[in-house]
Each structure stands twice: as structure tokens, then as C-alpha cells.
Amino acid sequence: MICYACLGLMVAVLSVSGYAAGIVFDVIPLELFGATEGRAVRINESLQIFGSAFWDLNNNPDDGVSHPVLPPFSFCGGYDMNNKGFIVGHFTADGPRTIFDGDRPGLYNVVTRTWKDLGTLADDNEGDPIRYDGHPWDGYQNMVYDGTATGINNHNQIVGVSCMPDVHDAGYLPVLWSSPGSAPVPLSTTPLPGWERFRINDKGVIAGNIEINGIPRAARGSVSGPLVPLPSPAGYNQRSAAYAINEEGVIVGYVQYSGDPIVWHGAKWDAQNNVEILEPKIEIAMGINERGQIVGTSLDGEAVLWEGHQLYNIDRLAYQTGWDIYYAEDISNDGVIVGWGGERSTGRIVPLMFRERFDEQKPSAEYNDNDRPTGGANSFMLEITYLDDGMIDSDSLDDEDIRVTGPNSFDALAVFDRVKDGEPRQGLRTWLAYYRLAAPGGSWDNTDLGTYTVHLESNQVNDMSGRYADEGDLGTFVFGELPFKLQIRKGILYGPGSTVTHQFRCWVDVSYFEDNGYPVTSLRLCSPGEVWYPLTAKPEGWVFEKSGPAASDVAAFGDGTYQIETEILFDGSPFTITDDLDFGIPNTSNPLPQPAQQPSFVAPIANQENVASPLTVQWAAVTDSSINGIELSIRDTESDQTLLEQLISDPARTSYSSVWLTPERHHAATLFLRHGYDNQFVGNWSCSFSKYTATSIAFTAAPADSDINGDAAVNLFDMSVLQDSWLRDDCAAANQWCGRADLNRDGAVNILDLLILAEDWLQNL
Length: 765
Fold this sequence. Notes:
This protein is mostly beta strands. Strands 38, 39, 42, 43, 47, 49, 50, 52 and 53 form a 9-stranded mixed sheet that branches. Strands 26-1-29-28-27 form a 5-stranded mixed sheet. A 4-stranded antiparallel sheet has the order 2-3-4-5, with no helix packed on it. It contains 6 helices and 53 strands. It has 5 domains: about 200 residues, no CATH class; about 120 residues, no CATH class; about 120 residues, Immunoglobulin-like (Sandwich), CATH 2.60.40; about 220 residues, Sandwich (Immunoglobulin-like); about 45 residues, no CATH class.
């Protein structure tokens, strides 16, 4: 899991400054030596780490090789290691274990991999353990008096706790072993109910925990003086604990907040016992180095570092993606931190080492997602990848980051949704940020076809060093036209006099298949009553139509689920595709309302002659609340040419202007009052559904007007317009018959139009 030579080189690089803006932490998991889990709890100035194992990172073979600590024992808190690599704790000798076994205070030698029993206050005159049941001692197996060593300095002075002699159930006394071979000496006459932490610096100053009137208290003492309780600040309970001490005599730990008995606030006491609450508050301060840097665990259960008056969340600033970092237990004078966390993939506890590093480059951003919006959806989720050699400041991600531009002057900011870790890439950490883009017009439909550009705005996304990602285009996505179009409509057509026709029509465009070399051999429609009807191939698509004077003639085509069955030739063999499509209000089980109002033309009127072009069509106002749209159709009935198919989404409209007619020809105009939904996307289908009432009238267009430019005279200005479009053959109503130059509306500007102009030359009209 670790290359120790490389790691030793890396951690040997000393940090000469404190943690400031732009600092991140590299995270290195430590070897488990075959164990399932582990923790790292202490680091010394020789770059040796101790916890559930011993890790030697200084490449010196004389002071121990990385290995599990033997015999194995569980981490219980309060163990320590000095710069010589000697470890103190407790151990149990080989042999059968029982619930009555006692753990002995011990010193572990990492070179010989052996434990030395430090002895307890209850041992006999020869220093051997005795059994508290009165029987002769028969080894380390059963019911021996116990204790533990919790602190050691570089002079091999050791502190810890020991059972009291002859009174096993009375608790433990804090003790000092002045050297590994000396007998323990009590530091207090007041017993402790259980094991407590004691630490000792090279000046012989001791930090520990005692009890006064049943209340645990952090305390300070020395090898030659008593343990004195440390004060709590105003507003805090007397309950407190000490966990570490540096060479300046600064002690760190916690005090209990009086406003909430389960909340502990990190605290430090200087050499004169002045107390300070660490702000921002730390739940427990676990370790301190000679630079005054403090590590511990936050109120949120995350590893943190505190320096001066700045809190650094190691979990947030860690260049890693595989762990949740819970505890920072200790910090060396060089700023190397050790602790442990949970492996996200398995949940197991992993020993970790953290090393500070400056975030030296600004973040970058990418958009290379191949997804496209889903037809009919009301939004589209963009995935933006951010990269940095440190940490992205997640607080900088918001609704102002990503702008999207596209067809029809579309320009909108995407709404920030969430961010998660991505996979590291070429030495950089990545984050996947998601932004939700609202669809133009409320839903993605065929009016939104085209290419959209994703743009990162300036001074928006920054890393923890305050560097911003460059503004610029990140990429594009395409919303393309769907292969298949379907229109199903049902309604009532009011004709001349009292003529009424009930209509049903299904139209399908499958030119996509034909254009790609897959001929369509048949198309069928299945009604909600599960009756199949064949569609007929026509120039404009495949069509099925049914009509009659009575509602019963189209009663079979009601609301509900229709099926479209398409048979194509795929590599010469028939292949059938069947899709379900719902005729009703989209995304509900509700039927479409049937409009009841009969449309009525105001202009032109039925059978009107000499209707001028361009025509303004007018109709009576809509009063039926079920109508959500209007459709206007105008057709040259002599040529069967459609001049206008216009859907008007505003039912309050009562007119439509600039309809260009074919001179002197018969026309039909049909006005539909409808309740419908267009460009609803279902799979590969773009569907339109509607119910309607319609009125159709006939009229005749007036002769061509030679006054092309509309100044009431036929002269050189009109000739100039004719000349500009001379010999064009693409004239139609859509381009106003080539800017009115196609006087006879035959689709081309030629000699016939010149003759019409000549007939009225120099006349005032």
C-alpha cells in the first residue's frame, strides 16, 4: 500500500510556514499488514508513526522496521511514543484469555518487537505481578493486577495508571515510572474509577485527568509536584479533559459546554493555566506540536487542524476521494498529521497520514457530455467537470456559474443542483457538478432544435486558494429533430349552411426511414378499442382519415392509448416497430376537452369575390374556456397548394395579417378552435394531439396588383422591385411571392409578371 522510501522522502520536506489560504492535504493510507482495520494515533520527530501498527518512514533500519505491534492489542486511547521509537501502552501475555485477565502496563521495543512489563503498585516485593484472589501467581493469565502506560518523553520517563495494591475494586492511581526499570510512584492519592490519559513532556510537566467530587477534570502536574485541576472558562462546566502537551507546557483537550451537556468544545491551557476555547470550536483537541498547531475532531465528526484563529477541515481540504476522515490524532513539528478515517467503499477504519501542500494552480472546467435533452422534458441536466490540484471551494458553486446560449436568441443561466467527487485524473482531483437548465418555452420541442453552447462565467468558480477558473466556452450539446412525427386530431367541421362533418385524422411522417435506406412497407393504427386500421401512403406522409355526418362515425377513435405499428425493410427483411402513444392531456390520464364553440369568420366572408392580397383574416373572439389554441389554414383550391398553416397559441387573438393569395383563384380558409398539445415527445416520436371545432369558407382572390411597392402608382419603383427578383423560381406565400414581384402567383418572376406590370404602367391606382 505504501512505498516507504518514496514516502520518507516526501514527508522529510519540512514546512516553514503555517497553514494559510491555498493549503490542501495529501492523504496517504498506511499499511494494514493483513489486518482488517487500523488506526494511526501518534507521530514522532523521527517520522515514525504508531497506532495499531508501527510505521517507520525514515529509512533507518536500526530503529525498527514497519510491522504490526506484537502481541496484538486493540487501541484504547492514550498511548504514546517518543522520538526514540519506544511505545508505551498495555499488553497481555500469550495464553488463554478470560474476562478476568489483567492487561499489564508495558514498554514496546520496535527493534526487538518485545514488551517490557513496567509493573504496577500491586506487584510483590520482587516486582512480580500477584493475583488479587490470593492464589500464587502462575503467569500472566488470570486475575493479575493491571494498569497501562499512556505517556513517554524522550528521557524515557513514563506516566500512566496502576491498580491500587490489595484493593482491586477501588480504582487506579496515576503513576510515574522514572525509567523503564524503576518501580511506579503514585502521582496522587485520589483514585480514578478507570484508566485515564496522562502525557509528559521533556521538562517533566504532566498533563492528565483526575476526578474531584466525581467530576472528571483536566489537570497539570510534574514529576515532583501534585496534579492540579485546570480551570474552565465562564459559561462552561467544570467537566474537562487533557489529551496532549507540548514542550512549552501548552495543554489541549476539551471542556464541557454548560448550555448542552453532550457538547464538548476544544480548549487549550497555556503554561500559566490560562484557558482559551478554540474558535471555531473543536469538539476534542487531540494533539499539539511545538508550533502551536492543534489537531482534533470537529463537532461534525471530521478531522480538523487549528492554527491561530483559523480552522482547517482536513476532510474538506484533503486531496483524496476514497475516505471520510474522522480523526486527526497527532501532529509532528513538521506539520505531518496522523489519524484515521472510514473507507467509503467498505466502511472499514483505515490508518491515514496527511501532509500539507500548497494549491499552486487555478481550477479548470470541462463539458464533454454526449447526452442531449429529452424531448418533452422541462429541463436538461448539465454535468460540468471541475479539475484542480487542490480543492474546489464548493461554496463558490451557484446559479451564476454556467450560461447556455442557443437558437432563437436563447440565453439562460443554469441552476446549480449538486456536486460530487469524480475520479482523479493525471494528478488532479476532479468534481462533477450538476446544473439544471430550464427548457426554452417550458419544454424541449421541435421549436428548440439546434446547437447550444455551454459557457463558464468569469470570476465564479474558485479553489480554496482563491484562484478562479478561466471564463470561456466549455462545449456544446445538440437538441436534434426526432425521427418520427405523429399527429392525431379529432373534431367537428362546420361547412356551408347546416353541413356538419365529424372527423378523425392520423398523420405520420416516417421519411427518416426512407431517407436512410429503410423502406416503409406498411403502417397501422390501433384504436383504444384494439381495432387495427391501415394508413395510406401519400406525398405528405402516411395518413388515416375517417369522417361522417354523425358523431358515431368516429366514436371508435376516442381518448386512450393508441398503437402505431411500422413495418420497414431492414437489410431486405421485414422489421416491425410498435409504439404506444396516449391521446389525452400529456402526463395525465385525463382526456382532451372537446371545444364547443363554433368558429366564425369576420373577414373574409363566405363566397366573397375579389379578396385583396395580402389578406388580413379576422374571426370572432373565443369564449370557450376549454380552447387553448387557434389554427388557421388557407389553401389555393385550384392548385391544391397550401398557402398558410399557422398555429396561434394565444386563444385571445382575433386576427392574422399578411396572408398572400393567388390572384383570381378560388381559396378555402379553415379556422380551428382547438384544445391540443404539440411536439410532445414520446421515445423517438414527436407527437401532436388535439380536439377541435372548425369552420371552412370559400372565397376568390382579386386580380394581381401591379403596384408592387404599394405607393398607389405603377412606375419605375415597381419595375425596380421586379428586376431585383427577375427569374426567381422559389416564390411562395412564405416569402410574400418574392416580395410581391410574382404578380400572377405562379411561383416564378418572369415575362408573365412583366406583362401584368405593363398593362398598368404609369397608372395611379
